[in-house]
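#dry-run=false #mode=assembly
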Amino acid sequence: MRDQKTMSRNEIEEGPVLAPKFDEKGLIPAVAQHAETGEVLMLAYMNAEALEKTLETGQAHYWSRSRQSLWLKGETSGQIQEVADLLIDCDQDTVVLKVLPQGDGGCCHVGYRSCFFRSVKDSTLTKVQDRL
Amino acid sequence: MRDQKTMSRNEIEEGPVLAPKFDEKGLIPAVAQHAETGEVLMLAYMNAEALEKTLETGQAHYWSRSRQSLWLKGETSGQIQEVADLLIDCDQDTVVLKVLPQGDGGCCHVGYRSCFFRSVKDSTLTKVQDRL
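#status=ok
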């Protein structure tokens, strides 16, 4: 991984070199999307180590902001996310993981397939998924 | 919109009341996903006003961190995002917008359909989309 400060805007935006822009806390948002259905499952954060481990092992690792520690998703729940593809955006400050969720196929601690199980209309939330 | 501080964890996670948890900068990440193809197009940020305007008008509004101002996506590029659905996650700190991009159908200032036009393998990025 290279430091964006040593690169031109064009290198960052269109080049072949991985140079993630971590925020002031050293984190980058990661969107997990189901590799087969396309459903957006969750958004979590990665530090450099989590991103490296994810690329190295093919299993999604995040940084737990509540526990302040590296987090292998599914380590306790069984909801391991096998990474089929990892995409990065133009300014290299967000990644998308295309994943195959293991275990019960879910990802949400509340018990749903996706964390995005409620739709917003005006100021009212309606559940659009059943519990697993 | 309600303040999470006045609510139980269960109300936040499973209830019908919109109570977004903005970060210390007053922002919440918003994932824009194509309503028809499911492709993840971009990640941007909303403040309370941007979220309200989006719900009110049905067109995606964000907070531009670089310009520090409210941003109607597509106002200059024509890449207006008509919002077909807006989802919020369990802890109400991220939203997903299912959008229909107008204009040339793109969203990325570099000229691609999605900002996530590069796939990461080891530390090398490969383009997986053609320019619009």
